[in-house]
Amino acid sequence: MERAYLQWxxxxxxxxxAVDEQHRKLIEVINRLLARSTGxxxxxxxxxxxxxxxxxxxxxxxxxxxxxxxxxxxxxxxHKAEHDEMRxxxxxxxxxxxxxxxxxxxxxxxxxxxxxxxxxxxxxxFAAFLSSDA
Length: 134
Ligand SMILES: [Fe+2]
Ligand SMILES: [Fe+2]
Known about the structure:
Helix content: over 70%
CATH architecture: Up-down Bundle
Structural class: mainly alpha
Order of helices and strands: HHHHHH
CATH superfamily: Hemerythrin-like
CATH class: Mainly Alpha
Number of domains: 1
Bound molecules: fe (ii) ion
Number of strands: 0
Low-confidence stretches: none
């Protein structure tokens, strides 16, 4: 069993099952990337896990941003800025995976705390806006 670096908790719940499901998947992909990056065959294993994370992050963030725009969420710009930060981090990881191990290791280590903060902060804020609007 792979170690779970980040665990989903009820404090991350948005109250929307479909969104929570996507967030659990993000956590799973990050955990897999972290587990693979520290293994003996880290590079190859991490490579596919990083590709998955990149794809999943793009898809989930784009969907969330479309939703925020559609309902004219006033916190859109700040929320998108957090997504941009994560997209930049993933781009750094993709650029560094084959070269500087120190950069890769240090960058990969920030993923769990970043996601935890985002899920409990920005994503719950948007969820609260959606339910107050209903
Ligand atoms: Fe978000
Ligand atoms: Fe999200």
